[in-house]
Amino acid sequence: MRRKRVLPLAALVLCAPALAGTAPATASPQGPPPRPLRILLTNDDGYSAPGIRKAYERLTAAGHDVTIVAPLTNQSGTGTKMMNAPSVTVKHPEPKVWAVDGTPGDSVAFGLAEVFAGRAPDLVVSGTNFGPNVAGLATHSGTVGGAVTALESGVPAIALSTGGLTVPDPVTTVNAMVPTMDFAVKLIDRLRARARSGPLLPEGVGLNVNHPVVGADGKGTSAGVATTFQDPQTVLEPDFTDAGDGTWKVTVKVALRPAAKGGDLEALAAGRIAVSPMNADWNTGPADRAVASVLLAGLRP
């Protein structure tokens, strides 16, 4: 899926200035500083995971009003899945924290309908996730799925992930979550300053941000920021072995092809932060619709 390539040109133009550098934006001296944002914070690793807690601390320290509405348990790999159960268990273990026994999509849906009832948040932040959400991984990511649920409801959203495609080391990855959130705060500051009193992002557009692990301890500074698209390759290749009893053993390996030029894999491999604009639908754009029209020309029921 290549959703991120087919966004309107205007959307990419509006996003690009916010991603050109990592310095925090400053308000115009003629006006007041941008107001703090009301942020719904979710993830797919669970409400008590290190990434979401670091995100909460850093965004709160930046002055924002942050409320966690996240899965009760680890929901990695659930994508945009949402339950169809007649009831859902929701816990409120501490102030500003809600834990939903469901997917990231369920959590965001509950947060928008109940926790933020009557007044939507200014922004939904999903993450930071443990490990990357690039290429085909992004399509199935619960972190991205939480952001997509927000976009479907008309709320601006940013998905955040920390890590590369090598087997993640827990200590260095958690360390790298600090520069991930430092960048996220600067990105939000830039969007907020440029938006003035308007929306943070063009309507229907979100950002999928992947931050690399830099340095032996994970505390290093990235090589820069790149506006990217979702590389079309799948990354993971499953293999099934018949056990002979009606079950199949499943193994998965990383099977990388050369990275697409300008894609998120290329940027992450170069130690840069990959920022991919995304939308919440599966439309492919006018060029592909024209091709489909030619293929279907003259076809009748």
Write the layout of secondary structure elements.
Elements: H1 9-19, E1 38-42, H2 50-61, E2 65-71, E3 90-94, E4 97-100, H3 104-115, E5 123-130, H4 135-139, H5 142-152, E6 157-162, H6 170-195, E7 206-211, E8 225-227, E9 236-242, E10 248-254, H7 264-269, E11 273-278, H8 286-296
Parallel strand pairs: 1-2, 1-5, 2-4, 5-6, 6-7, 8-11
Antiparallel strand pairs: 3-4, 7-11, 9-10
Helix pairs in contact: 2-6, 3-5
Q: Give the percentage of residues in beta strands.
A: 15-25%
CATH class: Alpha Beta
Shape: globular
Report on the biggest sheet: 9 strands, mixed
Q: Indicate the percent of residues in helices.
A: 25-40%
Radius of gyration: 20 Å
| DSSP strand count | 11
CATH architecture: 3-Layer(aba) Sandwich
Domain count: the total is 1
**What is the helix/strand order?**
HEHEEEHEHHEHEEEEHEH
Helical segment count: 8
